[in-house]
Automatic annotation (TrEMBL):
UniProt similarity note: Belongs to the peroxisomal membrane protein PXMP2/4 family.
Any single GO CC term annotated in Swiss-Prot or TrEMBL for this entry: mitochondrion
Transmembrane intervals: 134-155, 176-196, 202-221
Keywords, comma-separated and alphabetical: Membrane, Transmembrane, Transmembrane helix
A Gene Ontology BP annotation from the UniProt entry: mitochondrial ribosome assembly
Its membrane topology: Multi-pass membrane protein
Record flagged with keyword Transmembrane helix: yes
Keyword Transmembrane helix on entry: yes
The protein's name: Mpv17-like protein 2
Pfam family, one: Mpv17_PMP22
Main location: membrane
UniProt subcellular location: Membrane
Length: 226
């Protein structure tokens, strides 16, 4: 009876995780879940090859997937932000700076690499989904990793824009606190859901989805005098 209840609890937890993923961040996650229950002896179909490819991306090639995804999300966010600045900024002529977007993508790639490594280490050091463990993970993330990411963003962008070290540090001092406060408001609830519901290999991808809006905010703060 105890074994049955334990198995039922495990299945319920897995189902809840899959449902959460399919609803907020991975539309194809249901296919991945269905694919795991198929008979392995069946002849592979086109759908089977697709599922195999997706599992490879989120398994063997997860490092590359997280890096490319983070860079792409950062670039997409900047494109949206530049469009908003052109439409709502009172400009007489539509101007788009592709170099700025490329710089954002390069910084996003660096952050994707760091996020991949950081969350792997964090899950090894603090395994489990108990509330106390999640609270510790969020505390480590916000106290240690968030300041690092904010610093890398501003200094990295300044470096790619060929700004002086003094100018880079000055901008970081002026904007760090405000960005960090917003970071906490956005990421503390997001990270709770991230650590509580999602398996490790999907975390950077789902954080990148939340990052679309947050990165638009970063792009605005970086490229405007506020």
């Amino acid at each position: 009876m105890l074994n049955f209840l334990s198995g039922l609890k495990k299945r319920t937890t897995e189902w809840r995780s899959q449902l959460y993923l399919s609803r907020i961040c991975l539309p194809f996650n249901y296919l991945l879940w269905r694919g795991t229950s198929n008979n392995a002896s069946k002849k592979p179909s086109e759908k089977g090859y697709l599922l195999h490819g997706l599992r490879q991306l989120f398994g063997k090639y997860l490092y590359i997937t997280n890096t490319v995804t983070s860079a792409a999300i950062m670039g997409f966010s900047d494109i949206l932000q530049q469009h908003a600045e052109n439409v709502h900024g009172g400009r007489q002529k539509y101007v788009f700076d592709w170099k700025r977007t490329l710089n954002m993508m390069e910084v996003g790639a660096v952050q994707g690499i760091l996020s991949h490594v950081f969350y792997l280490i964090l899950d090894k050091q603090l395994p489990g989904t108990q509330l106390s463990t999640i609270a510790k993970k969020i505390a480590v993330d916000q106290i240690i990793f968030s300041p690092i990411c904010i610093t890398i963003f501003f200094l990295g962008m300044q470096f790619l824009e060929s700004r002086s070290w003094e100018s880079s540090v000055q901008e970081l001092k002026e904007k760090f606190l405000f960005v960090y406060v917003v970071d906490c408001i956005v990421w503390i609830p997001s990270q709770f859901a991230n650590f509580y519901y999602l398996p490790p290999r999907f975390r950077v991808l789902c954080l990148s989805a939340v990052s679309v809006v947050y990165n638009m905010f970063l792009s605005f703060i970086k490229h405007n005098n506020v």
